[in-house]
Specification:
The longest helix is centred in the middle third of the chain and has 15 residues. This protein is about 35% helix and about 25% strand. It has about 325 residues and is of the alpha/beta class. The strands form two sheets. Strands 5-4-1-8-9-10-11-12-13-14 form a ten-stranded mixed β-sheet, with helices on both faces. It is built from ten helices and 14 strands. β9, α5 and β10 form a beta-alpha-beta unit.
C-alpha cells in the first residue's frame, strides 16, 4: 500500500512511570520502581510499528538538554529516527501508579519551538518524501507550547502533493478541517471525537452517523471507545468491534498502538474491517503492559480469538 511510512513529532516526550509503595500526603512516598520510555503519540506509533515488523521512521524536534537519553531509548527500541535538536529539554510526562493500582497521568506542555527548528524539520521531511512512491506522513500528538492549530495545519498541508497521504491523531482539529486536509486516516478517542464535533454523541448510532459523514473526506475513521472497543468506518465498509475484559495495568499509549497495528494490518493486505479488529486487539493487549511497553505480534495473536465484531450501516 505505502512505500514508506514516517511519523512526525513536534512535541515528543520522555514517559516516566513511577510505582509507589505508599500514598501519604504528610510524608514522602517511596518509589518501588521506575521506568522511562521514549514517548509522544507519533513516537509510540513508530515504536509499535517497528515491533510489528513494519518500521516507520520517526522525525521530529527534541530538546538538546536530554536528547541523548531520548534518542538512546528510541535506538533501544530499534526505531530509525532523525530529530532536530533545539534549545531546551524534551518534556518528561509522569504516570504515577499508586498502591491501589489507580493511575495519575501528568502531561507537561513541552518547550517552545523556533522558526529555524521548523525550517530544519521541513527540510528533513521533504528529503523523506522526495523519492517516487506512496508515502504516509503520520501527524500525531499535542502542540508545542508556542504553536497554534492553524500554523500546525499549514505546516502539514505544505507537504501535500501527489503520492503523499496524511494520518492524524490529534485533539485540536475540528471536523471542518477534514474537508481541507482530506486525511487517509483519523483515530480520535470518544472524548476527542466529541471535541471535534462539538456534540455529546451520547449514543453509538450518533457516533456511527458522524463517522460515516466523514467518508467523503477521510478514507478510514477509527473511534476508540476504551474498554468498550472501537467503531470503524471506511469508504466501503464499517464495523463495531468489541474487546474482551482484560486486567488493565496501563492505558497509556493504547490508542497509538491501535493505530499502528491497524496500519500494519493494512500494509499486509488485510481488509479494512479485519485490520480494525487487529488494531483493537493490539490496543487491548497494550493495556495489559506496564507503562508504555510495546506489544508484540504474539501478544496480539493471543487476544484476537477473543475479539468480536459486527458490520454496521
Amino acid at each position: 500500500m505505502f512505500d514508506k511510512i514516517v511519523t512526525i513529532s513536534l512535541n515528543p516526550a520522555l514517559d516516566v512511570t513511577i510505582w509507589l509503595t505508599t500514598m501519604d500526603f504528610a510524608e514522602p512516598n517511596k518509589a518501588a520502581r521506575e521506568e522511562v520510555y521514549a514517548g509522544g503519540k507519533s513516537v509510540n506509533i513508530s515504536r509499535v510499528m517497528t515491533s510489528l515488523g513494519m518500521p516507520a521512521k520517526a522525525l521530529g524536534l527534541c530538546g538538546k538538554e536530554n536528547a541523548g537519553r531520548f534518542l538512546k531509548l528510541l535506538e533501544q527500541d530499534g526505531v530509525s529516527s532523525d530529530f532536530v535538536r533545539l534549545e531546551g529539554a524534551t518534556r518528561e510526562n509522569l504516570t504515577i501508579v499508586i498502591p491501589d493500582k489507580r493511575v495519575l497521568k501528568i502531561n507537561r506542555a513541552g518547550f517552545p519551538v523556533s522558526i529555524e527548528g521548523m525550517k530544519q524539520l521541513r527540510t528533513r521531511v521533504e528529503d523523506e518524501i522526495r523519492e517516487d512512491g506512496k508515502v504516509l506522513l503520520i501527524f500525531a500528538g499535542s502542540l508545542p507550547a508556542n504553536l497554534t492549530p492553524e500554523s500546525y495545519k499549514a505546516f502539514l498541508l505544505s507537504f501535500r502533493r501527489e503520492g503523499v497521504y496524511f494520518a492524524l491523531d490529534n485533539s485540536f482539529f475540528h471536523l471542518s478541517d477534514m474537508a481541507e486536509i482530506r486525511p487517509f486516516l483519523i483515530k480520535p478517542n470518544l472524548l476527542e471525537f466529541r471535541q471535534m464535533s462539538g456534540s455529546d454523541l451520547r449514543t453509538e448510532q450518533s457516533i456511527i452517523k458522524l463517522a460515516r459523514s466523514l467518508t467523503p473526506h477521510v478514507d478510514h475513521v477509527l473511534v476508540s471507545l476504551g474498554a468498550k472497543g472501537m467503531i470503524y468506518t471506511g469508504q466501503d465498509s464499517g464495523c463495531r468491534i468489541y474487546s474482551p475484559q482484560v486486567p488493565v495495568r496501563s492505558t497509556v499509549g493504547a490508542g497509538d498502538t491501535s493505530l499502528a497495528a491497524f496500519l500494519c494490518a493494512l500494509q499486509r493486505g488485510m481488509a479494512p474491517c479485519d485490520a480494525a479488529v487487529y488494531g483493537a486487539a493490539a490496543g487491548t493487549a497494550s493495556v495489559m503492559l506496564d507503562g508504555t511497553g510495546i506489544v508484540t505480534r504474539e501478544m496480539i495473536d493471543s487476544i484476537l480469538p477473543q475479539m468480536t465484531s459486527k458490520g454496521i450501516r
